[in-house]
Structure formats: structure tokens, C-alpha cells
Amino acid sequence: MKALYPGSFDPLTLGHLDLIRRGHELFGEIVIAVLENPTKVPSFSLKRRIYQIEQATKEIPGVEVTSFKGLTVECAKSHKAKLILRGLRAMSDFEYELQIAHTNRSLNQNMETVFLATETHHSFLSSSVVKEVARFGGKISHMVPDLVAKDLYNLYQENNKV
Q1: Is-above-0.70 flag for pTM?
Q2: Residue 11 preceded by cis peptide, ω within 30
Q3: Whole-number CA gyration radius for the chain
Q4: Which one-letter DSSP state was computed for residue 43?
Q5: What is the residue-wise DSSP string for 70-130?
Q6: Is residue 16 among the annotated active site residues?
Q7: Is 28 left (phi over 0), alpha (psi -120 to 50) or beta?
């Protein structure tokens, strides 16, 4: 069965990667769909985020990385995914994710959403936390894949030049 794992992945964290691996074990095929959100200015270009994900998942068979604009259910349908995979870190995530799952289901009655709880040691991770730590030169190697850590350090080192 094919699952769609949508998100901005700005940047990809080890929490995301854990969900991708576990989702792959459960469903076999995972389409990682990177959202092109015109209302947000990401730290990395869409092309760079896709590359980061491709590099981090190259050892996992059955993983496809793509981008999308618009509705998640339309992206899932176009990739013949039967379900949407989402991660939950805390109870606060659940409220938001449940609302989105109900919305998606109202748009496509055949689309299911499956929630996976993050591993405890990743439950504090968010892309914004990682960026904040990297911005101030903190250690992020336990939060993101090596390539992403390198890219973040380069980004903030470049931005901090006077």
C-alpha cells in the first residue's frame, strides 16, 4: 500500500526520517510530498529540500520524493496513495492534525489518515527548534541528518556575515 507523507520539511529532521522509515515498514511505499507554500518563505529552496530528503532516504527502497501545490488529497490521488501519514509529537499536534484529517476526508471519502507517534527521543523536535538552535551555533547533529546540519550551519554562517 502506498502512503503520502506531506510537509514543508524545512528542514528535514530525524523525527521526520524516523516516520519515513517506520511508515515504509508498515506500508511499503512512501511518497514524501514537499509542500510549495506561497505564504511562507522557507530557509531552503524547494529544490534543496527535495535533494536533502533524497539523500537522507536513498537507502530506503520504495521512497519517492516529489513536490506539490494545493490540496494534499489531490496530491495523494495523483500519486495513487491510499492514505496520508502524519506524525504526532504531543497532544497539541493531535488537535490540529485531527482537524486536517477530517477536512481531507470531507474532500475525499476514500482517503484515510494514519497517525504515528514519534519516538520519545524525537518528541521535542520541530523544524523551527532546529533552525533556532542552528542560528545560534548550537549542536544539531542529533536532530537532523548530516547534510541538513551542514546546510543549516552554512546558511546561518552566511546570514551572520557583516
Answers
A1: yes
A2: yes
A3: 16
A4: S
A5: S-HHHHHHHTT-SEEEEEESSHHHHHHHHHHHHHHHHH-TT-EEEEEEPPGGGTT--HHHH
A6: yes
A7: left
Q: Which three cell numbers stand for residue 79?
A: 500519486
Please indicate whether residue 89 is annotated as part of the active site: yes
Q: Which of 89, 105, 131, 135 is catalytic?
A: 89
Pick 2-123's CATH classification: 3.20.20.140, 3.40.50.300, 3.40.50.620, 3.40.30.10. 3.40.50.620
78 is catalytic: no
Length of the chain in residues, anyone? 162
Encode pLDDT of 9-56 as tens digits.
999 999 999 999 999 999 999 999 999 988 888 999 999 999 999 999
What percent helix, strand, coil does the chain show, rounded to 5? Answer: 45, 20, 35
> How do the domains of the chain map onto residue ranges?
2-123
